[in-house]
Automatic annotation (TrEMBL):
<dbReference type="InterPro" id="IPR050126">
    <property type="entry name" value="Ap4A_hydrolase"/>
</dbReference>
<dbReference type="InterPro" id="IPR004843">
    <property type="entry name" value="Calcineurin-like_PHP"/>
</dbReference>
<dbReference type="Pfam" id="PF00149">
    <property type="entry name" value="Metallophos"/>
</dbReference>
<dbReference type="InterPro" id="IPR006186">
    <property type="entry name" value="Ser/Thr-sp_prot-phosphatase"/>
</dbReference>
<protein>
    <submittedName>
        <fullName>Metallophosphoesterase</fullName>
    </submittedName>
</protein>
<feature type="compositionally biased region" description="Polar residues">
    <location>
        <begin position="227"/>
        <end position="240"/>
    </location>
</feature>
<dbReference type="InterPro" id="IPR029052">
    <property type="entry name" value="Metallo-depent_PP-like"/>
</dbReference>
<feature type="region of interest" description="Disordered">
    <location>
        <begin position="213"/>
        <end position="304"/>
    </location>
</feature>
<feature type="domain" description="Serine/threonine specific protein phosphatases">
    <location>
        <begin position="94"/>
        <end position="99"/>
    </location>
</feature>
Amino acid sequence: MERFTRAQLEKLRLELTEIATTSPRIVRQERNRAGRDFVIGDVHGAYDSVWNAMQLAGFARTRDRLFSVGDLVDRGAGSHRAGRFLAQPYVYAVRGNHEADLIDLHLDNDDPDETLEVLSRINFNGMGWIAKLTAPERAELLKRFAALPYAMEVQSTRGTVGVLHGEVPRGMDWEDFVAGLEDGDAEVLESCLRGRERLKRGDARGVPGIGRIFAGHTPHQSPRAWATSTRSTPEQSSPNCRIGLARRSRSPTWPSRRVCSRALAKRARSACTTRSPTHRSEHMPKSNRLPRAASTPHSPLSCR
């Protein structure tokens, strides 16, 4: 894996901090009057499956929009293609915890390259893809991740649709959630990235103030509807993903970033003794995979 020099790493940290300062934490999208809106669950590097699903849905790249709930990388071998995916003009993504963790690692770890070399070498949590990137490619991808919002509001014919990765904190309405994001409230940001309390507690009361929410993060065999929210994440052990029509449609705050970067570094150290070099990421059973579309050698998601 190509390493950053000390000067390159310091420059990157300044750039990531600047991007975080100037990028909005919530982005609002107007109604798509020309075509359809689609939402996909955690991609985790499965960009061939995304492209196949787009073909099967008759996705029109000049009219339709594709919204992602985050977690674009890790587990899937195609994770290095995330930057190419985000560059497509019809793609609108929010950040997931995997993007956030990778940013945090570079911001707070004394030697992120050493940690990533270990994680990549043993393919821990499917992170072997990082070794495919040059240092400039990794820097550009991190900057794209740092610019991703935490949540989106999308206007549709049935009202406002929310898109995020984790969840809105229990007992909080959408207005307060948005205010918390904009204010940089650490607990709200953390819940938006990693929250699972609603599902753990069987809380299906929904979120007042929003027509529907599409979220990811928590694994399910198929999309699951909860009151005013829809969870579109497939089985987490797979790099596969599902695609669905969205019919309803100060200084930066990095929640728990030191905890996260230390946790990744700890995993790298422990993985040397607890993981076999042949450790692999899991795959969804064939019966649950999306059917393959015709060969598409000119897919805009293809690279290297």
